[in-house]
Amino acid sequence: MELISKKSILIIAPSLIAESLSLKLTSLDQNLNINFNNGTGDKTPDLVIWNVLNFQSEDLIRLELLKLRERYDESKFLIILSGELVYEANTPPSLNAEGFLLNPSAEKVLESIDTILNGGRVFDIENNSRVQLNINKDKPLSFSQKILTSGLKQIDSEINYIFKYVNSDSTPEFYKFILKGRLRELITAKSFLIFLWGNSLELYTEAVYAENKINLENKNTVFIKDKNTIEIWNLILDRLKERYSSTNLNVEFNNSSIILSGIKKEFISRLICKMLDELDNLVKNIKENYKEKDFKDDLNSLIKELKVNTISNITDSYFRLKKGSESISINDFIYSEVNCEDIDKESHESIMFIEPIIKNEALDYDGKLLPLYETESFLILENIISNWTIRNCNLLASEIFNICSSWPELRTVLINPELQSTRNFERFRNNINNYNRWHDYIYMPIYLYESKREYIDIIDKKFTRYFKNENREKELENLEWLQKQVTLLVEIRDALAPQLELAVKYIGNLFVTFLTKVVGKAIGLVGKGILQGLGRSSSK
């Protein structure tokens, strides 16, 4: 049996976590050479596993990671946030590392090691664990705790001593086999001591690498093996389809700013997933048929065809409905009626995310070139595609409402029951038109001027709007005359606001001075005169 591994792993973690993780990994794969903390000597490890037990600040982790990168400049890094910790941010920390895991199992760590060492990336996103880590560092240790701590330190010392011989090339293989058995005994004895007396020693109760913490483990792990853009596209497509396939949405029917909320829940999900399928077909079509010519000239027509195919497949192909005295296929009728010419300016241009996927290039986002296999760019690309899909489905929902206005029977099939009456239906359409006018001529110019972009997503089964800061100078230059006047008014307001504030403050000071120095003094003189008059009259 070969004990010395070709994969050199350095674990930087509290001693017990490092030992328990090492024991679990070597039990799963004996082709690992694992060292603890500074136990590699002059050798550069293939992979550094840095376990952060008590997460406090993303900036501190990033700073410490930068120091580790300088020390192990040729190594790859896997960062693990483990233990029962509180992480209140909406997104994971953005760290320059090949791997990032939240409360993983040993099997997931081993799979991540193989993926990273083969040139891939691994990261967890959208973690939902909210568990408090309670360690009272200021509490003094009792006599029994000090004895237990001393015993555990002696075991640690012997374990580190044995590891030096196990990982030495001069040690015979037979002795390594015996030493490794002894090493397992020591680690098991240490774990047993903590199991028996861990409650009396709070320092070690949380410092055990969890094997079966299913409730803490993040199930949403992305494994990028080849760093190919088509592989990344397939990962994003699968994630989005899984997210939007649910028909159990909590829709606000009076929210006319989101037209999708006016159609039935099952068709909301179907429309979004169908557009993702058509987008997948578009990417594969361009990849196969535009190898020798540029696809940009045909992209607009391809996108229009994508929208038409999406909306014309909103129902099953065999579904028919009476229109007058004639039985008509809904999909065929919609296909013949729609034009799909509208464009949502709050979504990114499709070329922005299609071109990097087709040409296997970095994402050009906000003046930065971001490789698609990194954590930050992966999430940015996913949000861009998601926003583009939902917003274009929102435009298709507007087409559905226009078609249903001339075909009342179709409302019972596609439109939400609360909006099927003529009054509610027309009121919803009017609200849609009013909101679109206000958004196009008031809100959107202000967003552009403030360098903001509005995103729409389905979060916790609800339509949610949020904003991101992005450079939108080019879009600002292409505004219409009336829209530019709105930005001009905002600019004038910003320019006059400080001066108006100074003027109001100056006038306020003058008013206060007038009240205190003039009016107040006059009132005082009058009061003094009255008192003097009373004094004279009383003295007589």
Structural class: alpha/beta
Order of helices and strands: EHEEHEEHEHHHEHHHEEHHEEHHHEEHH
Q: Indicate the multimeric state.
A: single chain
Number of domains: 3
Q: What is the approximate shape?
A: flat
Please report which band the strand proportion falls in: under 5%, 5-15%, 15-25%, 25-35%, 35-45% or over 45%: 5-15%
Gyration radius from CA atoms, angstroms = 34 Å
| Tally of helical runs | 16
Give a short account of the largest sheet. 7 strands, mixed
Order of strands across the main sheet: 2-1-3-4-5-6-7
Share of residues in helices: 40-55%
The poorly predicted ranges are 1-5, 127-138, 199-218
Overall pLDDT level: 79
Q: Give the CA-CA distance, first to last residue.
A: 125 Å
Topology, number of strands = 13
Protein name: CheY-like domain containing protein
Organism: Prochlorococcus marinus str. GP2
Walk me through what this model shows.
Helices cover 55% and strands 12% of the residues. It has 16 helices and 13 strands. It has helices spanning 15-28, 58-71, 106-117, 143-166, 173-197, 202-205, 229-244, 265-289, 299-311, 330-337, 350-359, 375-405, 408-414, 422-449, 473-477, 481-539, and strands at 7-12, 32-36, 47-52, 76-81, 99-102, 121-124, 221-224, 320-323, 326-329, 363-365, 368-370, 452-459, 462-469. Helix 1 (15-28) links the parallel strand 1 and strand 2 (32-36). The longest helix is centred in the last third of the chain and has 59 residues, at 481-539. It is flat. Residues 1-5, 127-138 and 199-218 have low confidence and may be disordered.
